[in-house]
């Protein structure tokens, strides 16, 4: 069989993702912090792009014709290539820069709507040094105490090895034999160092298991109730199962005495090292604010902290006046195009988030008025059809975006949930069902906690049709124990 080369024509349709479109999609799904980081990186890499400040804003006598509510958008007020409002403001090179960009296919929702802007009072940020501090971790805290103790060199060396083998909860995860073998320190010295560290703050640290951790705390606090130590030492599994009758029978005490002892045990710290975990607290800054004004909800974007961009006048003048050479001109035009795309993408991102939030408010008006119990079932397709976008766009918009509402701060994805059928044919959001289960369990009598079957019957009275296994699944998701482990004996 002979091999030969042939040329064939083939007609096919395919989606071409231009670098600009890829950048726009990437910006859309970034969180607020990631967006600020991305803008700062572009500011460093693109000399044509710069951040405008309050000093760059036009004075009142020079800002005639500029609307007051638009004063937060400095790059829309001066003639910017591709963004100027009148044709006579554009020079030929500006028109060519915009012509090279295919704006038509930029967004499927190339909206004719405009995004309202709001002006807020500018306040000086607090000093960074006054709000940021370094926290001491568990190892540092224990090492300081070890150095303050009256120990010899071998005991200190063994103690440092022990501290280095503690997990984040403060438990000793190695063995005395391994440390002795690796360091050459006698086992007696290692054991002595371990006992000394177990007496350090926090009480219960360097324990090898939960039982030892609780016993260290009991001995340190000096409880007069000997039943407390007996229950932890011999009946820890029964405590976990809340089997009060069995513990009372095994110890020869009354149920009331067992309950009193367990109340003391539950007040102890099972993870003594967690208070020194060095994980930094991350505070959520909402991307959108939803405020109720009279009987309407007003949506405003949170632009605080996001750099306000503009095209550098220096490079604009270099092109207009013809002072730039051919290579420099080509470089500036290329960077100009990149800057325009970034600015357009940021503005389009704001418009898209605004439209999606506006749609969510319409669908979930009852939630904004009355709270989580009135949350309705909602899927991405509902909002996508309402704002004329693709479901994938809605998914990107609602990822890592937070909204401040009269009911609290929620991620936009929170408002999307499937529904359970109600008796009247309507649907109830799963988040509302979980919240109702949580309320029922919180109000139950601890002596007679509700079983999953009883919860099903009580939810049926609220017009919620749900299976028992679904209740059990939601209960596990909420971290609620089964009824037999929530039960407490009657003490009177």
Quaternary organisation: single chain
Q: Uncertain runs with pLDDT below 50, 5 residues or more?
A: 59-95, 97-123
User: Helicity level, as a percent range?
Assistant: 40-55%
Q: What general outline do the C-alpha atoms trace?
A: extended
Total E-strand runs = 8
Q: Encode the helix/strand succession as letters.
A: HHEHHHHHHHHHHHEEEHHHHHEEEEHHHH
How far is the first residue's CA from the last residue's CA? 98 Å
Largest beta-sheet details: 4 strands, mixed
State which percent range the strand residues make up: 5-15%
Mean pLDDT: 80
Total of helices: 22
Q: What structural class do helix, strand and pairing data support? A: alpha+beta
**Lateral strand order in the biggest sheet:** 3-2-5-6
Please tell me how large the radius of gyration is: 33 Å
